[in-house]
Amino acid sequence: ENAQLKDIISHAKEYGFVYPSSEIYDGLQAVYDYGAYGVELKNNLKRLWWETMTRVSDNIVGIDAAIFMHPTTWKASGHVDSFNDPMIDNKDSKKRYRADVLVEEHAAKLENEGQVEKARSLTAALARLLEAEDLAGVRDLITNEGIKCPISGTSNWTDVRQFNLMFSTQVGSVAEDASTIYLRPETAQGIFVNFLNVQKTARMKVPFGIAQIGKAFRNEIVARQFIFRMREFEQMEMQFFVRPGTELDWYQKWADTRMRWHLALGTPAAKLRKHDHEKLAHYANAAMDIEFEFPFGFKEVEGIHSRTDFDLKSHQEYSKKKQQYFDPEINQNYIPYVIETSIGADRLFLLTLCNAFTEETTEEKSRTYLKFHPAIAPVKAAILPIVKKDGLPEKAQEIVELLKYDFNIIYEDAASIGKRYTRQDLIGTPFCIAVDHQTLEDNTVTIRHRDTTEQERVAISELHGRIAEATSF
Ligand code: ATP
């Protein structure tokens, strides 16, 4: 793994952001837990997304649908038939790989070695075979190219088989007539099946949107790069229902709106780009990703898709329940078209961590700190009495009382003040508030700013306003 990513992963673990799941049992691949500061950061990101969608945007309401859904949902959505990855096993190492990834990595290697033409024709051949669902052809490509297993070093491969990414489980007792259901691989379907419920009960008029944050599960085979690709993750999705024919305007509008949101959160423009899909999914008539430059390259953080009426139409077909909307402005019934914005909360978390991770070396010293926008920082301020006597701890606690109902505040009185500043830098706290003997006389404190390390004297009565201003948009 990339050196910078390694530093970020160990920082995240050491300072209470992200741990491997069930670590005492050596972890569970592609599953992670969030620690004390991690959960605060993640909640802040989710809340910001939620507020932007349901409060700031016009005509969007939220829902919270269940993870379990009627099995027919996944027939209608296409996930039962086509949510597959082509897999191949090496007979010697018994390791399983994604066949397409093996070929792509081989092509990348050839390209690095200067065989650009060869690499291009290989990826083109792969694309043709995948398009034609010619799995035997993909296997031939792998064996003819002599692509070897990175573990065993042999090219003794099995056939290529499709492997569905959905996790399944049984409902009801196993002895009874149990039926198989799936853990949802995306949150979107919970919105589609509730389209009419929400439209009617919240009295929405097209164009309107439904937003949801929730867990999704995918049995990803290529589980790498920390929380970039997980088996259990959280999605923040919004489906915006529009009149047919207006969808491409809305698509543009949402692509721009979402890009502005990322910029407002402090992600530098140079690290973001839009990437139009060359190959559209069968249900889409336009699609793009917002990509971020992770330490391992530009990769998708958010997808914006124009999904036409595919989902509602398909649910209408399978459920035999009309999914139409009567548009009073044009006196017509229709199935609305849908623009979707879909972002992973964990992937946004990783983006935020990568952006914030700062290693600074000046002539005097070097320091590491997390430069979060104050609005998303897990802890907003640390209240630090410079000594643990003379009534300073009590005075500091009064300040905690003043702030703790509106902000996440930490109180700390152990170790030297310098060490305590360092510790707050490492978790990204924007303000350290030092309480000293002068505080007892004139009710002022020192604010030490994380990014500049500069200090200023401020009246206690000003603290609430100062923090509120810095932590809002
Ligand atoms: P990728 O190509 O990276 O697998 P995708 O195109 O399958 O992603 P979508 O199905 O469009 O992704 O999901 C929307 C968003 O959900 C992605 O942009 C990403 O932020 C997030 N996401 C998808 N799969 C995962 C995962 N396994 N772990 C973490 N986040 C994920």
TrEMBL record:
<keyword id="KW-0030">Aminoacyl-tRNA synthetase</keyword>
<feature type="binding site">
    <location>
        <begin position="344"/>
        <end position="347"/>
    </location>
    <ligand>
        <name>ATP</name>
    </ligand>
</feature>
<feature type="binding site">
    <location>
        <position position="98"/>
    </location>
    <ligand>
        <name>substrate</name>
    </ligand>
</feature>
<feature type="binding site">
    <location>
        <begin position="300"/>
        <end position="301"/>
    </location>
    <ligand>
        <name>ATP</name>
    </ligand>
</feature>
<dbReference type="GO" id="GO:0004081">
    <property type="term" value="F:bis(5'-nucleosyl)-tetraphosphatase (asymmetrical) activity"/>
</dbReference>
<keyword id="KW-0436">Ligase</keyword>
<dbReference type="Pfam" id="PF00587">
    <property type="entry name" value="tRNA-synt_2b"/>
</dbReference>
<dbReference type="GO" id="GO:0005524">
    <property type="term" value="F:ATP binding"/>
</dbReference>
<dbReference type="GO" id="GO:0015966">
    <property type="term" value="P:diadenosine tetraphosphate biosynthetic process"/>
</dbReference>
<dbReference type="Pfam" id="PF03129">
    <property type="entry name" value="HGTP_anticodon"/>
</dbReference>
<feature type="binding site">
    <location>
        <begin position="233"/>
        <end position="237"/>
    </location>
    <ligand>
        <name>substrate</name>
    </ligand>
</feature>
<dbReference type="InterPro" id="IPR006195">
    <property type="entry name" value="aa-tRNA-synth_II"/>
</dbReference>
<comment type="function">
    <text>Catalyzes the attachment of glycine to tRNA(Gly).</text>
</comment>
<dbReference type="InterPro" id="IPR045864">
    <property type="entry name" value="aa-tRNA-synth_II/BPL/LPL"/>
</dbReference>
<dbReference type="GO" id="GO:0004820">
    <property type="term" value="F:glycine-tRNA ligase activity"/>
</dbReference>
<feature type="domain" description="Aminoacyl-transfer RNA synthetases class-II family profile">
    <location>
        <begin position="120"/>
        <end position="385"/>
    </location>
</feature>
<dbReference type="InterPro" id="IPR036621">
    <property type="entry name" value="Anticodon-bd_dom_sf"/>
</dbReference>
<dbReference type="InterPro" id="IPR027031">
    <property type="entry name" value="Gly-tRNA_synthase/POLG2"/>
</dbReference>
<dbReference type="InterPro" id="IPR002315">
    <property type="entry name" value="tRNA-synt_gly"/>
</dbReference>
<protein>
    <recommendedName>
        <fullName>Glycine--tRNA ligase</fullName>
        <ecNumber>6.1.1.14</ecNumber>
    </recommendedName>
</protein>
<feature type="binding site">
    <location>
        <begin position="228"/>
        <end position="233"/>
    </location>
    <ligand>
        <name>ATP</name>
    </ligand>
</feature>
<feature type="binding site">
    <location>
        <begin position="218"/>
        <end position="220"/>
    </location>
    <ligand>
        <name>ATP</name>
    </ligand>
</feature>
<dbReference type="GO" id="GO:0006426">
    <property type="term" value="P:glycyl-tRNA aminoacylation"/>
</dbReference>
<dbReference type="GO" id="GO:0005737">
    <property type="term" value="C:cytoplasm"/>
</dbReference>
<keyword id="KW-0547">Nucleotide-binding</keyword>
<dbReference type="InterPro" id="IPR022961">
    <property type="entry name" value="Gly_tRNA_ligase_bac"/>
</dbReference>
<feature type="binding site">
    <location>
        <position position="186"/>
    </location>
    <ligand>
        <name>substrate</name>
    </ligand>
</feature>
<feature type="binding site">
    <location>
        <begin position="340"/>
        <end position="344"/>
    </location>
    <ligand>
        <name>substrate</name>
    </ligand>
</feature>
<dbReference type="GO" id="GO:1990742">
    <property type="term" value="C:microvesicle"/>
</dbReference>
<dbReference type="InterPro" id="IPR033731">
    <property type="entry name" value="GlyRS-like_core"/>
</dbReference>
<keyword id="KW-0963">Cytoplasm</keyword>
<comment type="subunit">
    <text>Homodimer.</text>
</comment>
<dbReference type="GO" id="GO:0070062">
    <property type="term" value="C:extracellular exosome"/>
</dbReference>
<dbReference type="InterPro" id="IPR002314">
    <property type="entry name" value="aa-tRNA-synt_IIb"/>
</dbReference>
<dbReference type="InterPro" id="IPR004154">
    <property type="entry name" value="Anticodon-bd"/>
</dbReference>
<comment type="similarity">
    <text>Belongs to the class-II aminoacyl-tRNA synthetase family.</text>
</comment>
<keyword id="KW-0067">ATP-binding</keyword>
<keyword id="KW-0648">Protein biosynthesis</keyword>
